[in-house]
Amino acid sequence: MKNAVNKTISGIIEIARGMATIMKHFFRPSITLEYPEKKPDLPPRFRGRLALLTNSDGTDACIGCKSCVKVCPCVDLIQIETSKDPETKKIVVEQFTIDIGRCIFCGNCTEICPKNAIVSTDEFELADYSRESLVFDKKALTLDPEKSQRLRDKKEKEVK
Amino acid sequence: MNKLIENSIKKDMLINVGPQHPSTHGVLRLILTLEGEIIKDTKPVIGYLHRGKEKLAESRTYFQYLPMVDRVDYLSGFFYQAALCYAAESIGEIKVPKRAEYIRLITMEFNRIASHLLWLGSFLLDLGATSPLFYVFREREKIITLFEELTGQRMMYNFYTYGGVKKDFPEGWIAKAIDLCKEMPKLFDEYEAIITKNPIVLERTQKTGILSKELGLNYGITGPNIRASGVNLDLRKSNTYSVYNETDFKTCLAQSGDSYARYIVRVQEMRESLKIVEQALKQIPGGTPEKLKVKKVNCNCNREECEYCGFDSKLAEKKINPMTFKLPIGEATAMIESARGIIACYLVSDGTAKPYRIKWRTPSFSAVQILPELIKNSPYSDLMPIFGSLDVVLPEVDR
Amino acid sequence: MYDLYAKILNILRLPEIIAQLTWAVIPFACIAALMVFVVIFLVLMERKFLAWLTVRKGPNRVGPNGFLQTFADAIKLLFKEDIMSEETNKLLFTIAPVIAFAPVMIIYGLMPFTEHLIAINIAVGLFLVFALSSLTTVGIVLAGWSSNNKYSLLGGMRSAAQAISYEIPLVIAVLSIAVLAGSLNLKEIVTAQSGGLFSWNIFPAFIGFIVLFICSIAEVNRVPFDLPEAESELVSGYNTEYSGMKFALFFLAEYAALFIMSVLISTLFLGGYLPPFNDYLSIILLDNIIKNQAIMDILIHLEQGFWLVAKTYTLLFLIIWIRGTLPRLRADQLMGFSWKFLLPLAFINLILTSIIKLAIQGY
Amino acid sequence: MSNINNLAIDEKYEIKRLDKTSDNTEVIEVKAEKLFETATYLKMNKDTQFNMLISLCGVDKLEHFEVIYHLYSTIFNKKLILKVILNKNTPEIESISPVYSAANWHERETYDLFGIKFSNHPELTRILLPTDWKGYPLRKNYVNNDERLSWNQR
Fold first, then answer.
1. ipTM of the complex
2. Which candidate, B159, B142, B156, places its Cα nearest to that of B74?
């Protein structure tokens, strides 16, 4: 009997303590980020959608070495077609396709790239209505020189 | 007619929990035989999330395989990468600099806290309390944000590499982490105020799902689950794989082996992990990245024993080229104390750039295996709290 | 009142027979409207409060501060496809939400919201309230059985067991009120409590208040007694198979019952529509300013409504707060709690109140 | 300390000692017939007390199968690897699930992925793969020619 009374009293006290703790949160500011209106602050290392950079004169930064293809864990995710320019004997990247729908955003390709031509952007809203629209070809991947420079600056700042 | 009578006499009912059920923590199917509300028999069916991680390893190079292992357990990805890295490092006899080991230790312990926090929320959700789930997500968010700043991703980090880690801490990271370490214990106190002595929680968790020492060892249960039964099995203490021997912490034990003991052990473990992180953040060789940078300008000694540019302060032994990385012939097992128990990575290398065979031993696999023993003869309402208290992550079971 | 109504119809040149026929329907129409309004507001309030307790924002997209969110949800439920599985018992499956819903609606008619705002004033009002409120369980059991789903069946059975075991301490706790007031008429029970805060029934029968409060939470299947729809084990309990309007009826019944239970508790223990002072606030403040008796009556009416609503929402907030804090009990613990703890308490309360009554009145 | 350097055990159980693995774990090779006895001995003997089966897996070594048992002793904090070499044509071995309950599912998994049969196993069925799967995927000569599983590109 005494035991039961003790148990009841301690139970009531503990429940009251728990409820008081919950009530404390009533007055705390909410932690919700109202997403579509407010975007999260992304750190500079964030790995978003991949993009190709261009040099300041508008030429491709990619030299077609296919290193990224070799380290990519998803088979055939990155597809590069190159050809040799008969005059300058330089490799020209003709096709550069990434299937973002299958990309796992591991960042292996950006680390291996000798010219830092392939980088991760801040873009993460990649939902789409069809799988085909997630296959990005070279035109869709390539950024213009201004944006490329901005991204390069950002990455360099981070490395420093 | 006879059959009709037979069926009506039959007392037990088959009930199929999952694969789509709000609280099976993923896609697990349990075929239960109920007599009234008492569970008489259980047959777990797994494999809905099997992604062939072991088969995939055979067709990928070591570097291609590295990002994949994060996904074995999405709540504590660092541990799996660490296990793979340790296995490969012991075959290739790659030395890991101390700073890299410290970075690994800090991230792993933070990851343990994040994982335990999420477990706490979902366990209480299984019991029916909704509020703690949101509170733990708020705290976990802080840790995840730190990880995002460090690695670039919130869950699939791909941060470790063979022989070290990929990047150093960004500027200001260590200060933020120390702040978090100071702030966290108060928040744990709040959870304990809500949960630890709540009479309903006590009623629901004490004396349910009792896991005895012998049964647990026989089934290969590891981690907090077996520590709650009083077995002092903590690889961080006994095997000291990283720089755990340089930090001071105690193994959390409980004796009763019921769901409540598992809760107590995990909550204490979170506090211990915070202590480890706090010590490691102070002891890290080379200090904060800001300090390291300032010194590097002046320090061009390149001596091995130099505090700021010696081997200990590097991130990786040498820059390993992913294109040509190969391991010699050999085999190794790396065992790691993850948030859920012992992860063993058995790696067989045949000298080529691709692993010959990788076997993952995951703690959740054993935990699901023991579930029928734990819930036998307990009411159906206790199924989810007991299952939840084992901290099972289904992708880890199916690999 | 009827005369006025008949006069209005007469002005509209309608025969008197229509007035006679429709007069009986009007209270029910009003009750239904009140019920829907109350539920819509209550759902919004619960979602907002729970959100604030869990450091979230809650619904804030539809209308100002999410005020119209429940309207949007209600409209969505109305337009949703009504899915019925092949295996169900069609008749019972359809009738079950109605059985769960109808008794709650009648209880609304029995409640004295203000001194005159009571649709059905009968001598055994209290008795009828409890007779009707236990009928809801029949609907839930039927829903569980006719869905032909094992989760639903378990939810329905649990609900039946729960309702039976919680009805007993509930009724015994309320018995002390009948002792104190000497009547089963709800209006008389309220009138017996007039005379300010300290003549409320909560003081002689505090234990009874606690028992009734706990039992009423169990009666309307709320946390920590929400076993019939425990989502972590029974998916959604008895309404797993329901969708669209039928689900909406269950939902409506549940929240309407929650509201009316709070009204009942405040009526029985907290003086109902009476103010916590000796006199009405409006009389104290405005007696010398407003001389017109009719306006004064309306003001008192409004004030009575205000006091009832204030008491009810305090209780509702307490219930929501409890929902935010506590986990769920297990089925056998739930039974044990009722039979081993609440029932003895209810008896102790009955004896205590009887002694107090004797001591005060001396007979 | 754990002591498996006992020569008497070597002769009795026909143990062959192999090189240590890179992480300094002792490896011993056991004959398939003697496995059950050896495992029982290693678990029960008070000098060894390998009370935990950490994992069990198969390896396809092209000319033969290997079944690898990772034992762990929580008392002496020691790892041990048992290796059993199996013929590739009729891979069959006795189940050790009566000794270590943990072996039950691990053996099912090995059966599932390698097709190694464990005799006296309580319930030897596929565990990770669906029951109508053809072939044993972790064998090196496995070719997936089940057309139901062919991935339709995009």
1. 0.84
2. B156
Phi, psi angle pair for B250, to nearest 5°: -120, 150
Cβ atoms of residues C214 and C329 within 8 Å: no
What is the β-pairing status of strands D16-18 and D26-30?
antiparallel
Q: How far apart are CA B270 and CA B266, in angstroms?
A: 6
How far apart CA D28 and CA D16 sit, in angstroms, is 6
Q: Report how far residue B81's alpha carbon sits from residue B65's, in angstroms, rounded to the nearest whole number.
A: 10
Q: How buried is residue B156: exposed, middle or buried, by Cβ count under 10 Å (0-12/13-18/19+)?
A: buried
**Contact between C325 and B131 using a beta-carbon 8 Å cutoff:** yes
Query: Which CATH code for domain D7-143?
Result: 3.30.460.80
Which pair of structure tokens corresponds to residue A31?
A: 């932690």
Q: Which of B108, B203, B205 is nearest to B159 (CA)?
A: B108
List chain D domain ranges.
7-143
Q: How far apart are CA A81 and CA A94, in angstroms?
A: 6
> Which pLDDT does position D14 carry in this prediction?
67
Residue C140's closest CA among C152, C126, C127, C130? C152
Indicate whether D1 pLDDT > 50: no
- Helices in B196-336 by DSSP H: which ranges? 199-205, 213-218, 224-227, 235-238, 259-283, 289-298
Q: How far is A96 from chain D (nearest CA, A)?
A: 18
Smallest CA–CA distance from A11 into chain C, residue: C326
| Residues shown for chain A | 160
Q: If DSSP codes are grouped into helix, strand and coil, which group holds residue C351?
A: helix
Residue with tokens 């205000």: C306
Going by pLDDT thresholds of 50, 70 and 90, the confidence category of residue A41 is confident
Residue A45 within any structural domain of the chain:
no
Name the least confident of B16-20, B140-144, D124-128.
B16-20
Cβ neighbors of A37 (< 8 A, separation 6 or more) are none
Provide the percentage of residues in chain B whose pLDDT is more than 90: 0
Residue among B200, B383, B384 minimizing CB distance to C326: B200
- Say which CATH topology domain B2-398 has: Cytochrome-c3 Hydrogenase; chain B (1.10.645)
Is A16 among the domain residues? no
Mean pLDDT of A26-55: 84
Domain-located, residue A93: yes
CATH code of the domain in which A114 resides: 3.30.70.3270
Structure tokens at C97: 């939400």
- Look at strands D26-30 and D78-86 and give their pairing: parallel
Q: Tell me, rounded to whole angstroms, the distance of Cα C266 from its chain centroid.
A: 10
Delimit the domains of chain B by residue range: 2-398
Count the neighbouring beta carbons within 10 Å of the beta carbon of residue B110: 25
Tell me the average pLDDT across D52-70. 86
Beta strands in D43-153 (DSSP E): 52-60, 65-73, 78-86, 92-94, 117-119
Residue D154 contacts A where some CB pair is shorter than 8 Å: yes
Chain D from 62 to 81: CB within 8 A of any B CB: 68, 70, 72, 74, 77, 79, 81
In a domain, A39, yes or no: no
Residue with tokens 């001995």: D41
Nearest residue on chain A to C56, alpha-carbon basis = A30
Instruction: Pick the residue from chain D with its C-alpha nearest to B395.
Output: D128
Using CA atoms in the order B137, B139, B144, B147, what is the torsion angle rounded to 10 degrees?
-170
D154 pLDDT band, cuts 50/70/90, is very low
Q: Are strands B164-165 and B342-349 parallel, antiparallel or unpaired?
A: unpaired
Chains D and C touch (3+ CB pairs under 8 A): no
Each as own residue / partner, the long-range contacts of residues A142-148 (CB below 8 Å, 24 or more positions apart, any chain) are A142/A51, A142/A52, A142/A53, A142/A54, A142/A60, A142/A96, A143/A51, A143/A52, A143/A53, A143/A54, A144/A54, A144/A58, A145/A54, A145/A55, A145/A56, A145/A57, A145/A58, A148/A53, A148/A54, A148/A55, A148/A56, A148/A61
CB neighbours of residue B253 within 10 Å: 19
pLDDT at position B138:
86
